[in-house]
Design the sequence.
């Protein structure tokens, strides 16, 4: 595909799928955990928390398919599998760090906005009864 044809707003553009992958529920957390180097599956799951083994496995396979991580299997008992960011995966660290900082800095503002919204919705419901 010619880069002149890349348009994230085109539903058929591969960049759209990549954008969705980066923004999914688990990818950002996985990339953050792998920032410091290779991590075993069990350690990765413990650090990400609240993700089922099945969903973590699916996400890791997708990230491997996309070339963002590598999976290394060691022939030992019990089997050991390490996951590590590729150069492409590491290139996500800077923009994700900026997004993480933005999110952490704006938590109070967003929580206040949610409360105001919920209060206004509750008032509308009560007024309509």
Sequence:
């Amino acid at each position: 595909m010619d880069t002149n044809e890349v348009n994230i707003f085109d539903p058929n553009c591969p960049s759209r799928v990549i954008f969705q992958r980066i923004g999914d529920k688990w990818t950002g957390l996985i990339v953050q955990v792998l920032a410091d180097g290779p991590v075993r599956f069990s350690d990765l799951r413990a650090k990400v928390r609240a993700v089922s083994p099945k969903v973590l496995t699916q996400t890791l396979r997708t990230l491997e398919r996309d070339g963002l991580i590598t999976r290394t299997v060691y022939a030992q008992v019990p089997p050991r599998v390490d996951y590590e960011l590729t150069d492409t995966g590491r290139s996500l660290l800077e923009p994700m760090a900026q997004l993480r900082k933005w999110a952490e800095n704006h938590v109070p503002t967003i929580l206040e906005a949610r409360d105001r919204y919920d209060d206004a919705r509750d008032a509308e419901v009560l007024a309509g009864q």
Observations:
- The longest strand covers residues 69-74.
